[in-house]
Write the structure tokens for this entry.
Amino acid sequence: MTGTVTSSQERALAVSAAAVHDDRQKLVALSHSLHAEPETAMQEHKSAAKIVRVAEEAGFDVTRGVAGLPTAFVATYGTGDLVVALCAEYDALPDIGHACGHNVNGAASVGAALGLAAVADLIGITVKLIGTPAEEDIGGKALLLDAGVFDDVAAAFMAHAAPEDSVGASSLAVGAWDVAYQGKPAHAALAPWEGINALDAIALAHTAVGLLRQQLPPGTLVHDIVFEAGRAVNVIPETARARYELRARTTEDLAHARRRVRACLEAAALATGAELELTPHGADFADLRQDDFLTAAYTRAARSLGRDPVDRRGEVMASTDMGNISHLLPALHPTIGYDTEGAHHHTAPFAEYGASPGADRAVLDAATALAHVGVALATDPDQRRRCLRLLADRRAAAAPRR
């Protein structure tokens, strides 16, 4: 917070921290339960229900299945004009469970929401806990943003599990295509010339993109996997399916990469005679832009809890759909660290530490720190006005012209 800390601010900080502390067993149990029953993108029915149950018991008003997403929800508490959102993630990865720590992320956001609910009337806020599914796949936050779920939100927070505490990092923009080539089957020995080989198209596309990589800007990446490329070795493959994922430092660089990669995919179709079908897979993720005031407030709060986040401003991490939110409103996405003995995200060893004592402490510390950021924002008159003004400007820009 800027300026002198007032008695009402001190009280709000103390009450919010006490609320998290009082619910510590419930929050740790939630994290452990999510970890024990990992559910992948858009299949998080049990996970969403577990979080909703905690929110309802705390007096939040809950709407399930928002934006047509069965595992998304919105839980609100309070009536203040400043709406603060906590984004709860809870999807896991196929086969390796919570290898990105979303059980920690989700439980921490729930804890922060409970902490802020305890002071909502005191500091004049509405707490909005938003269940955001499928971060690892189609980008639930981006879909909820497009559906208007964040239209009344002045600022949005979450913390992400990691091997270290950090603040301020950006992320790579990311987008994906489902790729299908349609060829023509033929006997591979008797009349291969009568066929159109969809596998050849996949092979040419993969090679063309591989050659393109040398000319892509630093930070631009392309990944691909093949789902299908024929079913019988003695039949010219009629169909081939793959997925291409592109990452770049900015949304502008991502658009440039899309044009170049698309040309490679189209060239493979032209060369083989196969028909190409490109289907966007989920929403594009924008690069993350973290708010300076919220980052500073979180850093102070984390340090008060005995943590010392590394300042990663100017650096990039992987990708997150929180980036989409950060392009439209003030957003916060630090990492909360715990010991994983060198294991990194998206690996089975990382997942093993998601219910460790260090991860449990991370849940509670992140919840407390995020709640304190909400208090800092709501009780700083200049920052409160800034966020409300940005919200009003956003609404005015979105309003249809007469």
Observations:
- The chain has 13 helices and 16 strands.
- Residues 357-379 form the longest helix (23 residues).
